[in-house]
Amino acid sequence: MKSLPLAVLVSWPCWVAGCREPRAAAPAVAPLALDVDSERRDVDGTARGYPEMRSLKGETIGKGEFSQWLEGDRLHVRARYDMSPTRWTEEQSVMLQEPVLVHERWSFVEMRNGEVYRRFEVDFRTGNATADKREGKELRHWSKHLDLEPGRAFAGGGWPNAIRRYRDRLLRGEKVELQAVGFTPTPRSAMVEITHDGFDCVPMSDRRPTGDRYRIHPKIPWIVKPFVDAPDSLIWLTHEPPAAFLRWEGPLVEPDDPVVRVDLLPGGTSEPAFATKP
Fold it and tell me: What global pTM score does this model have?
């Protein structure tokens, strides 16, 4: 989403629920600007935040800036992470929210030393997807037409929004199958199975928020399994409505990328999630 990609972020409330046995009060974090109609829980509005990308050991990899805004009936989402003075990534999405959620456009670019290291784009309306990736001094290019079903196909930052739309079914124990677009770096589409895995404490930045853990499991066709090993991605959303983003863990963009963690709250420590009770 959110790739999963990177930046699987959604409109965030200014509160988080605490785990049992909370720690001492934490220092204030960067405020979020929200403009969301509370009567329409599945419709996002204006938001801004400063998430942090980390390793699974909790080490900071990138400092993030997240923003989303409405232009007419389209939600625009942008997430940038600065890994170093010479390396940064940026992901952008455009989504139609009503009458059904439709991921319309998605893009991701990674810059290194002032040059494009890799760039991926997909237009869900036409099914056209392109990829560019640097190999030595050459920037190679791939393009492919994918058979995508509008409203059931997502990438990167669109996944938290998609999970929220199916949240009631998932909490009842149902499994939901949707289409995912990924890059290897060749553009590909595959079915994924989404499940609700449990209720966790998610320690971050000296806070202990709680939330529901959702798993996105790629259903890779047997014919390509020897060539593509796509790990599961995990997304945590707050349990109390409106369900909002807490954390994402998964490969940065391509299936063989290192698995990273994106936390809602920047700074401080970041620890593995563990099961608790609602």
Answer: 0.83
Q: How far apart are CA 34 and CA 46, in angstroms?
A: 6
Residue with tokens 């563990």: 274
Structure tokens at 278: 């609602």
Rounded to 5 degrees, what are φ and ψ at 200?
-125, 155
DSSP secondary structure string for all residues of the chain: -----S-------S--PBPSS--SPPPP------B--TT-TT---BEEE--EEE-TTS-EEEEEEEEEEEETTEEEEEEEEEEETTEEEEEEEEEE-SSS-EEEEEEEEEEETTEEEEEEEEETTTTEEEEEEEETTEEEEEEEE----TTSEE-GGGHHHHHHHTHHHHHTT--EEEEEEEESSSEEEEEEEEEEEEEEE--BTTB-BEEEEEEEEEE--TTTTTT-----EEEEE-SSSSP-EEEEEEESSSTTSPEEEEESS-SS-B---EE---
Burial class (CB in 10 A: 0-12, 13-18, 19+), 110: buried
Q: What is the pLDDT of residue 41?
A: 52
Burial of 206 from C-beta contacts in 10 A (0-12 / 13-18 / 19+): middle
**Cα–Cα distance measured from residue 176 to residue 191, given in angstroms and rounded to the nearest whole number:** 10
User: Each residue of 61-85: pLDDT tens digit?
Assistant: 999 999 999 999 999 999 999 999 9
Closest to 54 (Cα-Cα) out of 274, 265, 276:
265
Q: How far apart are CA 242 and CA 221, in angstroms?
A: 35
pLDDT < 50: residue spans in the chain: 1-18, 20-40, 222-224, 226-227
* CB-based contact 266:49 (threshold 8 Å): no
